[in-house]
C-alpha cells in the first residue's frame, strides 16, 4: 500500500519564515506511512478567471495536478492583518477553479497558525477555516494550533528547539493522522 501524500502549504514567502521552519519540522516528524511535502505557492500568478479560458498558465495546470494527487493537506500560515496572506489565498483560489473543478474537494486538512505576538495567528487560522468550508476541505477541529511568540521557538540556525512546541506538534501530527485515517 502506498504512503499517504500530504501537501504542506506555507503562507509566507519570506526566506527566514517561521512558518516554513514549522513546516520543515513537520516534514521531519511525518508518521510512518505518510509522505509530508512542502508544496511551493510563490510561483503562481494571481488568479484571474480570464486566464482559465482556453489555455491556462502552466503554473496553474502543474499546481492543480499536484493538489489533485494529494491525499490530505496541511496549512501553516502567518497572520497578515487578521487574515491569511495573499499568496496562500491565491493558491486556494487557483486550485479551486475553474468553477466545478475544485482540486481540494474532500481532502482532509488541518491548520497551524503562528505569529510573533501572543495570540498565535488566531485571526488567520479562523479566516482560513472559512475558506476551507467552501472548498470542502474537512478541517480537523481539535487540537487547534496557534503558535504565539513564534520567534522564541527557534535557535539561530532555524532549528525548532523549544521542547514544549516540539511535543505539541508531534501530538498535533498524531491527531492529524487519526483525522486523515478516519476520513479516507
Structure, described:
It is a single chain. It is built from 5 helices and 5 strands. With 184 residues, the chain is α/β, with parallel strands linked by helices. It has a 5-stranded parallel β-sheet, with helices on both faces. Helix 4 (122-134) links the parallel strand 4 (109-114) and strand 5 (145-147). Helix 2 packs across helix 3. The two termini are 14 Å apart. The model has no long low-confidence stretch (mean pLDDT 97).
Radius of gyration: 16 Å
**Mean of pLDDT:** 97
Category from helices, strands and their pairing: alpha/beta
> What's the tally of helices?
5
Major sheet: 5 strands, parallel
Q: Strand fraction band?
A: 15-25%
The tally of strands reads 5
Q: Give helix and strand order, one letter per element, not per position.
A: EHEHEHEHEH
What ranges have pLDDT less than 50 throughout 5 or more consecutive residues? none
Helix share bin: 25-40%
Briefly, what is this?
The chain contains 5 helices and 5 strands, in the order E-H-E-H-E-H-E-H-E-H. With 184 residues, the protein is α/β, with parallel strands linked by helices.
Task: Please name the defining characteristics of this protein.
36% helix; 5 helices; 5-stranded parallel sheet
